[in-house]
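User: Sequence for Alpha/beta hydrolase below. Tokens please.
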Amino acid sequence: MPIITTKDGVEIFYKDWGSGQPIVFSHGWPLSSDDWDAQMMFFVTRGYRVVAHDRRGHGRSAQVADGHDMDHYADDLAAVSAHLDLKNAIHVGHSTGGGEVVHYIARHGESRVAKAAILSAVPPLMVKTEANPGGLPKSVFDGFQTALAAGRSAFYRDVAAGPFYGYNRPGAKPSEAVIQNWWRQGMMGGAKAHYDGIVAFSQTDFTEDLKKINVPVLVMHGDDDQIVPYADSAPLSAKLLKNGTLKTYKGFPHGMPTTHAETINADLLAFFKG
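Assistant: Structure tokens for Alpha/beta hydrolase:
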């Protein structure tokens, strides 16, 4: 398997397909690079080089006990980019991966980066604070950790079969294959990484990161996102970015890159070529 070893000794699995301008995909919690199948297949057949890694503690990467925070996530992404010597790359992040992309660009600079897109992404800040009154109470995320520790197999099944893809909405038609694939990806990773990752995605404040970014960024979000509520995420991120464009999808769920891949892929392609 293609693996790189980070400076702190963690083995990170990655995929690298095709040639052309690189698109680098950062996945959501608690999944793996497999969650980007619909995008990677679409873009590799259209002349792009597609790259995706499994975050530390997720998928096929090492199940280490420590380093499950945005600084390490960003540094691991930088290590993959440097190892593959990616230039003029487009970075695409979903959910937690959107935070990873934003933090990576702010922390490591734009010398390798052409554009970015963040989808259903966690920035600027998910948790409710005095400065972020529209955020979710910390008790919500504490509940995630409690449920994970009590039995993550059942918890992951419930997330995938319910709010993640909007399958709990009236008239929804759940796909058993999609639910099982989400559960499979989640159970491949390490419980400790996923437990700590809840703090990383919910309590990291990306406000200053967003202000530092100069490259064009497409902010894509469904207004029926039950995981990362729309009002306190995408519009705020787009305002903080120097060169941000907001694209809102009526009725789309958090997992829209899977449920609405045709629409999302077409809009990403238009942005990449624009």
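The two ends are 35 Å apart (CA to CA).
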